[in-house]
């Protein structure tokens, strides 16, 4: 079969077939009387083998080795191709994400495109200072897609940069909440924590609903952050978790302050005092935890608290008794 016929039947151009010949990949078995290349059935079969291997991403050098080296084993090469393909997909996915984010910013001209690109790069910088400046300028100067800000805040380990990013997201209102809600469902504990911290900075009913969902979740760290944020918003459902935090000495000062803020609402003061007293009455609580619970009563107004402190002033635990007596003295002033 002549080269033109092979090209038509195989889909490989005559030029490429000549290239294969020059490389020694496929040398036609014979020549016609006129000197034209003549391919045998075996030659054509080899051409199809070459094209199949090239379709997997092999170079012509690798194809030749695969076909001609008797000791060649494909497993290692296939593993390498898988790695290269994954790297290429990751690179292309990153590029696609960047392009979508630039498009979402609705640039009016190339100057706007360049500004958005520069800001996106700054958000991914190794320098915490650059990331922080990018977070602050993302609202004041260049509009950055909310998706980019959410990704940045969910991956940010530096507390100062995280604070700036959370502030930037808060300026967008409810726009970031759906993406942050996905963060709450992440398999990574740090991502879940960063998500609830960011949600806590956003006001409004939808954010409060997400925090209430987080309060009912299984991640104890997320529940604690949700309780602190909900307590500030006056949500009584946070009270049990806040008291747990006092007992467990987990950010207990903030938890006690939040209980105090909740107790400024007359309808909640007695509920909080009663819950604290009930926890104090449990015999399984350590002495140090009972003292913290007693201290938490200090800023809870109402007769229920005063009566509880009067009883605690005679507690068998001297530390609890002295703490209660001191608080009673300050309440009488």
UniProtKB/TrEMBL annotation:
* GO MF assignments: DNA binding; DNA-binding transcription factor activity
Q: Which Gene3D superfamilies match?
A: 1.10.1660.10, Leucine-rich Repeat Variant
Q: Does the keyword Transferase apply?
A: no
So where does this one cross the membrane? Answer: none
Under SUPFAM superfamilies, the record lists: ARM repeat, Putative DNA-binding domain
Pinpoint the HTH merR-type domain residues: 1-69
The family database entries (PROSITE patterns) matched by this protein are listed as: HTH_MERR_1, HTH_MERR_2
Per its UniProt record, what Pfam families does this chain match?
HEAT_2, MerR_1
Alphabetized, the UniProt keywords read:
DNA-binding
UniProt-recorded name of the protein: MerR family transcriptional regulator
Q: Which organism is it from?
A: Actinomadura rudentiformis
């Amino acid at each position: 079969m002549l080269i033109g016929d092979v090209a038509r039947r195989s889909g490989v151009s005559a030029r490429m077939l000549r290239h294969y010949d020059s490389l020694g990949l496929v040398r036609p078995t014979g020549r016609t009387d006129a000197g034209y290349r003549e391919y045998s059935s075996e030659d054509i079969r080899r051409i199809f083998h070459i094209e199949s291997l090239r379709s997997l991403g092999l170079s012509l050098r690798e194809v030749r080795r695969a076909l001609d080296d008797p000791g060649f084993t494909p497993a290692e090469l296939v593993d390498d191709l898988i790695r290269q393909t994954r790297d290429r997909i990751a690179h292309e996915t990153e590029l696609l994400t960047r392009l979508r984010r630039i498009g979402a910013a609705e640039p009016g001209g190339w100057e706007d495109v360049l500004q958005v690109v520069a800001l996106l790069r700054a958000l991914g910088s190794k320098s915490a200072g650059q990331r922080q400046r990018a977070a602050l300028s993302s609202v004041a100067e260049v509009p950055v897609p909310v998706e980019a800000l959410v990704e940045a805040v969910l991956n940010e380990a530096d507390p100062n940069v995280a604070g700036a990013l959370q502030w930037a997201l808060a300026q967008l209102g409810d726009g970031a909440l759906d993406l942050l809600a996905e963060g709450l469902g992440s398999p990574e504990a740090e991502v879940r924590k960063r998500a609830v911290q960011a949600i806590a900075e956003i006001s409004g009913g939808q954010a409060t609903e997400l925090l209430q969902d987080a309060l009912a979740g299984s991640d104890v760290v997320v529940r604690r952050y949700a309780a602190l944020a909900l307590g500030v918003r006056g949500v009584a459902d946070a009270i049990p978790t806040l008291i747990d935090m006092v007992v467990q000495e987990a950010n207990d000062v903030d938890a006690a302050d939040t209980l105090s803020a909740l107790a400024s609402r007359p309808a909640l003061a007695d509920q909080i005092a009663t819950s604290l007293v009930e926890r104090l009455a449990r015999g399984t609580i350590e002495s140090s935890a009972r003292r913290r619970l007693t201290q938490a009563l200090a800023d809870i107004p109402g007769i229920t608290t005063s009566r509880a402190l009067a009883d605690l002033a005679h507690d068998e635990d001297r530390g609890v008794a002295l703490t209660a007596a001191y608080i009673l003295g300050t309440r009488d002033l």
